[in-house]
Amino acid sequence: MSLHTEAVANVLNHRRVDILPRGELFISKDFLDHFFSKYRGQYIEQLKTAAQCLRLSVIGVELDTEWSRHLLVKEGYRKLDEYFTVGCVNGPIARFIETEGFFNAMLKIKNNPSLVSGVEIQLLGEIKEKVRLSYANGFRAIAIADDIAGNKGLLFPISFFMDMVLPIYKEIAAIIKENGLFAFFHSDGETRRVIDPLIRAGYDCIHPVDTQAGLNLYDLKKEFGESISFMGHIDMITWSKEQIDKEITLAENEFKKGGLILGSTSGISMKTVNGKLGVLYPRWEKE
User: Fold this and answer.
1) 158 contacts: CB under 8 Å, gap ≥ 6
2) The dihedral sign for the CA sequence 257, 86, 236, 45
């Protein structure tokens, strides 16, 4: 086990760490192509170089594209095995929105909540294959990406979440755990109401802590203790350099017993890269 993967595993198991590991679930291809154009068309080499420049321990990769599936089948991601690699897969709500469009999806959910279950069989079949291939590629976790909340809370009634969505999440978590991987869950927005159900469903880590939606990392730590870990806390968009630096120091002190992977709340793309990136990732300014 590499130092990267050992450090992240310790954090997720709430063991003491000297320095919190850092990572990003979402690193866009436009960012990779702009800053690492030398390896344009070589996604794995771009990710490795980005991880080295930013000193990442956690790297997220998208698994819902055909080119990514090709890499999985060929075990191309094995080249990233020194890192804690997380495969990101869209969840049932994201799938439904992709098919129907956001407004139609929300309207149809309101009128006929059982429609979401229509994506379940295909989704679970795909996830079984992707989890198996991810394990063969040396991945350490799978993240279900399903933006189910906005700044004011869930996009639909909590009863719909508990009755129709959570059972699917629970089945997905079971598949992930059966393959010896950690289960991550991603949603922007104010997700506090679903954290406890997600814990009971078997998830190990919540991404991100959306401060713009009113979530407070330290309140969540007090509420949920060692039952769950968090990833992504630093708001690269609205926080100043001084606030970012202050929050990093506070987080390092508060999470000495694990429970947090430091990273941005929004991922890294050309839209979010700015002069503050070097505060979270100091080596970036030296490149």
Assistant:
1) 193, 194
2) positive
User: CA 174, CA 85: separation in Å to the nearest integer?
Assistant: 19
Q: Which CATH number is 76's domain given? A: 3.20.20.210
What is the residue range of 134's domain?
3-276
Asked if 5 and 244 count as a contact pair (C-beta separation under 8 A), the reply is no
Burial of 180 per CB tally in 10 Å (0-12, 13-18, 19+): exposed
pLDDT tens digits, 218-270: 999 999 999 999 999 999 999 999 999 999 999 999 999 999 999 999 999 98
180: left (phi over 0), alpha (psi -120 to 50) or beta: left
In this structure, is residue 260 part of a structural domain? yes
Does residue 93 lie in a domain region? Answer: yes
Give 284's DSSP letter.
Answer: G
154 domain-assigned: yes
Q: Is residue 43 part of a domain?
A: yes
- Cβ(265)–Cβ(211) below 8 Å: yes
Give, as one character, the DSSP assignment of residue 277: H
Number of domains in the chain: 1
Q: How far apart are CA 45 and CA 66, in angstroms?
A: 19
Distance of alpha carbon 231 from alpha carbon 181, whole angstroms: 16
